Amino acid sequence: MLYSLVMLRSIFWKPYSHLFIVGDNSGWSIDEDAKALLRIAKDLEISASRIKRARFNLSQVVYYTSQFSLNDKNIYKSKHRISVDYYHGKPEQDESFRKCFDSLKNHRQQISRVRVSTKEMERLIKSSGINSEKVMRIPIGIDTDLFTPQTEIKKQEARNKLGIPKDAIVVGSFQKDGVGWNEGNEPKIIKGPDIFLEVISRLRQSFGGQAKLWVLLSGPARGYVKNGLEKLGVPYRHKFLKDFRELPELYDALDLYIITSREEGGPKACLESMAKGIPLVTTAVGQCKDLVNHNGNAMMAPIDDGESLSKFAKLVIENGELRNGLINKGFLTAKENNYSAQLPLWKDYFEGLINDKNS
Fold first, then answer.
1. SS3 66
2. Cα(299)–Cα(284) distance, rounded to whole angstroms?
3. 113 near 83, Cβ under 8 Å?
4. Residues with pLDDT less than 70, the chain
5. How many domains does the chain have?
6. CATH number, residue 275
């Protein structure tokens, strides 16, 4: 039905005047990127629509929010101008990343634009031989109208709904870190679930004896972490959300957010936690590495350094002055990277990609 409507309407479109936005149909992070991009396009008065797949042979612009779309040979057979988000994954790390990077290299002439979120990926993508002018760095932004600061009232309301004690010390982790989309009992190592459990184990030694330490999880495939928490005897809640707009309420329940990843394009939690006023402790990964000023807007440790992550987490929990400083400066960082602040970057990105704003 959608295909027929698009084909009918496209008769009246000028070439390369319309933007098709394609997610990965998972209902998770990458599909949320597609929704955010649609909002940005509309703010820029670009004619745009979200679709599940771009099979029709039109002369328009297709933006893929998953870099793995580059592995589909069919996309290069169309007349579309191809744009893609390429967030993470070094070719030497994994066979799937190698195939994706090879697709980029082999079709670099046919790809019109690549959006990266970090300096590290900007260097990698340019090393493929693609025209450097096609590569633009725009951090994964944040909706500060949705992610508004935590208040004490919001905090207690969120905890009441979740059945978490009022005086608990609650650590958050909301990202997918298991292999696949089911239980996720096999860890996705680049997301650092093993390091997360190491950090929680260390914190338990400091706070668990008082039965105060809790963990709040969201996201799919969290089985490995849940099993680990049960072995440690650390109470937790896992709230899998069907609607992304419910996520800010989970942040309201937190005292601290911890990122332990080894490889990231974001993660989104970096700016989400800052916007919510939740102190962040993170590895030097993804755009956290670019956006975090250690001991300023967040605390940052080297990758795989569970000991430092634990030390920083304990310090943030116990030191009110440090905590307040992180919250205030983190909120400013989030504001500087919200969707409205990024509009000039996106205007430059679409310049020359979209021929005419009006369909």
1. coil
2. 10
3. yes
4. 1-11, 24-28, 55-57, 208-211, 356-359
5. 2
6. 3.40.50.2000
3: in domain: no
User: What residues pair up with 50 in beta bridges, in sequence order?
Assistant: 21
Residues 320 and 174 in one domain: yes
Does a structural domain hold residue 5? no
Edge to edge, what strands does the sheet with 169-173 contain?
Answer: 236-238, 213-217, 169-173, 256-259, 280-283, 299-301
Encoded amino acid at 310, one letter: S
Say if residues 252 and 231 touch (Cβ distance below 8 Å).
Answer: no
Question: Can you read off the two tokens belonging to residue 76?
Answer: 């290069």
CB neighbours of 268 closer than 8 A, spacing ≥ 6? 29, 32, 140, 142, 175
Question: CB atoms < 10 A from the CB of 4, how many?
Answer: 9
Beta-strand ranges (E) seen in 155-283 are 169-173, 213-217, 236-238, 256-259, 280-283
Give the separation between CA 136 and CA 114, rounded to whole angstroms: 6
Distance (Å, whole) CA 141 – CA 338: 5
Q: What is the pLDDT of residues 190-224, one digit of tens each?
A: 999 999 999 999 999 988 665 699 999 999 999 99
- Ramachandran sector of residue 89 (left: φ over 0; alpha: ψ -120 to 50; beta: rest): left
Where in the chain does DSSP place strands (E)? 18-22, 47-51, 61-64, 81-85, 111-116, 135-137, 169-173, 213-217, 236-238, 256-259, 280-283, 299-301
Residue 62 zone, left/alpha/beta (φ > 0; ψ -120 to 50; rest): beta
Both tokens of residue 269?
A: 């939690």
* Residue carrying the six token digits 């969201």: 218
319 DSSP 8-state letter: -
One-character DSSP codes across 108-130: TTTEEEEEESSHHHHHHHHTTT-
